[in-house]
Amino acid sequence: MKKLLTTIGLLCTVISAQSFAESGYTLDPKLSNVTFATIKKQFVVEPASIKPSSGGLTEDGKFSIVLDLKSISTGVSIRDQRLNELYFESMNFPEVKISGSVEPSLLTGEPQNTTIAAEVTLHGVTKTIDFPVIVVPSDGFVMVNSTSTIIVNGADFGISTDNLNKLSATVGGLALSDKVPLNFNLMFDK
User: Fold this and answer.
1) How many CA atoms lie within 13 A of 126 on its CB side?
2) Are the CB atoms for 2 and 161 separated by under 8 Å?
3) Per the count of CB atoms within 10 A, which of 48, 87, 95, 139 is most buried?
4) Looking at residue 22, what is its pLDDT?
5) pTM of the predicted model, to two decimals?
6) Domain boundaries defined on the chain
7) The pLDDT value given to residue 144
8) Is the Cβ–Cβ distance between 116 and 92 less than 8 Å?
9) What is the rounded CA–CA span in Å between residue 190 and residue 23?
């Protein structure tokens, strides 16, 4: 059953990517990234990144992005594994999905600063987050970058304090924050 659901999900992603390519822009995973940092002992900041796996942006401004939690990279493989298994429970919740829309006028003309409200689904919970961004349209692509750091709280998405405690136990019980600063750079190609 799990393989069937994975196959159906992959098929939907491929179909979705094709429909975006036909009517707009497709996310370029090689030129896109999402960065965040874990914070321990209130002062130790450990940078991390996650690669978007797919996404698109239609000419009428609708967008959808999928992040694969198993692509988390902190530079330390055991930390990546522990974040996936203990904190995010990526075996049950393998993806982060982000969707919403922007004004179509932002996709042409000069670069513009704006705030985009997006639906974010993480750990089975969907919340609306306002993202301050700069949208840079050009001939053949649209670039969207965060203009300030967004603070994301794991508890807002139903990630249990127990998960944080399990992760903390692997580093000697050090205090870990369930809030992370987040930034992103997204490239959509025509």
Assistant:
1) 7
2) no
3) 87
4) 52
5) 0.84
6) 24-189
7) 97
8) no
9) 9
Q: What residue type is 46 in one-letter code?
A: E
Would you call 139 helix, strand, or coil by DSSP?
Answer: coil
The per-type count for the chain, helices as H runs and strands as E runs, is 3, 11
pLDDT in tens, 120-146: 999 999 999 999 999 999 989 999 999
Distance CA(146)–CA(38), nearest Å, equals 19
Contact 94, 70 (CB under 8 A): yes
pLDDT for 171 equals 87
Helix (H) or strand (E) holding 19: helix 2-23
For 164, the enclosing helix (H) or strand (E) is helix 161-169
Q: Domain 24-189's class?
A: mainly beta
Q: Which residue type occupies 100?
A: G
The two structure tokens encoding residue 72 = 């988390």
Strands 33-40 and 62-68: unpaired
For residue 43, the model assigns a pLDDT of 81
Concatenate the DSSP letters of all residues of 37-82 into one string.
EEEETTTEEEEEEE-EEEEEEETTSEEEEEEEGGG-B-S-HHHHHH
- Specify the DSSP class assigned to residue 176: B
Q: Which residue positions in the chain have pLDDT lower than 70?
A: 1-23
Does residue 46 contact residue 40 with C-beta atoms inside 8 Å? yes
pLDDT confidence of residue 117: 97
